[in-house]
Amino acid sequence: MKLFALSVSILLFSCHVKAQTAADLYDSGMAKIALKDYHAALIYFDKSIQLDAYEEKVYFSRARTKELLKEHVEAIKDYNKTLTLNSKNEDAYLERGMIKQALNDFYGAMEDYDRVIELNPKHEQAYYSRGYAKYRINDREAACSDWQIAKKLGYQPAREMIATYCLPTPR
Fold first, then answer.
1. pLDDT class for 155, splitting at 50, 70, 90?
2. Beta-carbon neighbour count of residue 43 at 10 Å?
3. What's the whole-model pTM score?
């Protein structure tokens, strides 16, 4: 009798797992991220996408997870898919730009930051990050201009960049 009860329990559990919706799987992936179990989170996101391949937040979250695992090229692919599903997702442009910048693709990063600023002209981090990309391609004047805007918008890290790279040096 115990074996029968155990078999029924296993069957019911497996039916429950199979009956999970894409949203349930997404939520499970997010819970795994909170536990810093990134590999398990990816499994849940993959299963969610198998059930619903048109949910941008799943691709975005999977991209962020891949970023945490230093899988930058794969993360960019998921940000691309996110942007295919919603071309106005400024967070996806920003995150993709930051990865491109980390990979020393400063021109590609600037294109993404430009798009963020086009979507949200008050996005202080986009100005700050674009300033850094401009600094890295030796356009100090433009970098300082972007950092000034970021500072005016209230982005405190811009103050340090301005103090370090933009103020005239005492003679």
1. very high
2. 14
3. 0.86
